[in-house]
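Agenda item 2: magnesium ion complex prediction
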Amino acid sequence: MQQYRITLLPGDGIGPEIMAVAVDVLKAVASQFNLEFVFQSALIGGAAIDAVGEPLPQETLATCQNSEAVLLAAIGGPKWDTLPRHLRPETGLLGLRAGLQLFANLRPAKILPQLIDASSLKPEVVSGVDLMVVRELTGGIYFGQPRGIFATETGEKRGVNTMAYSESEIERIGRVAFETARKRGGKLCSVDKANVLEVSQLWRDRLNQLSSEYADVELTHLYVDNAAMQLVRAPRQFDTIVTGNLFGDILSDIAAMLTGSIGMLPSASLGSAAPGLFEPVHGSAPDIAGQDKANPLAMVLSAAMMLRYALNQPVAADRIEQAVLQVLDQGDRTPDIMSPGMNPLGCQGMGEALLQALSRAA
Ligand code: IPM
Ligand code: MG
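Presented output:
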């Protein structure tokens, strides 16, 4: 029997409830595909701050490093927002990405016909959207030095962050992006701000050089402001998008919302070696935490991405994705994707519906 060590990081807010659903779903597919998951839970974010006084305990990083893959639900909440930066939940997440060297973040956004009415854009605009944002995750302005809030000579404070990319950082994310595009529609759009920023000029030059090695992929470039506009104007033009950390943060939220609910979208963060990190694109939604209202589908689809990308179990991943489509087909909806005439369910109810769909598929 194939055995996998999986680190679970439930985190904060709705994290624990959606993680519970994903774990049940994974256990169900494990028995169907003769796999064995050894789950180990660890602390991150606000939960870790409350328990041990820091957002990313060394023990958590070690547990993650000692596993085949990491499943993360969500971190953060108002309770910890006023803490100094080094003690904030977000710092734990950024530390985990850096600590595991997860430089490539894959964020797919695919519109499901069942949810087309949940999109805030017109159905004819979003119908058929199927794109992938490849976001650089361990560099750029999120990590560049110098950074800080410094006093100037006049005593005024000045906040500083630095957007920097070295050629090797651009090359390794570029390769992931070209290879991702090659397996998809063969079109790669690189997004930058090369009309203003030197760091973007280097980004663009390096991608152009790389493209000679990927003759089967069509490379285009857009400035980030135009890309944001094109994503809401004519999103079907995109297949694979590659961009830096900050632009990717913003564009992936826009891309997510095209599909109607950010509660539907999974993501994978990968480095050159295992373990990868799999997490929903959405946050911890503290406003609905503990009320059985959260949509667990992005979390469950993240578990499917883990099976596909980290554990090389594509058939089991397909099985989970099919179960998600099936519950949507039968009209099951959490509040975020509810529309008239559909069957309202809470987080747990959605989990049960998934388990039933899975048992029918076995
Ligand atoms: C994301 C989030 C994070 C980011 C935050 C929580 C640090 O917005 O994963 O997109 O900015 O990367
Ligand atoms: Mg974000």
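Discussion summary: The first helix runs from residue 15 to 33.
Owner for follow-up: CH.
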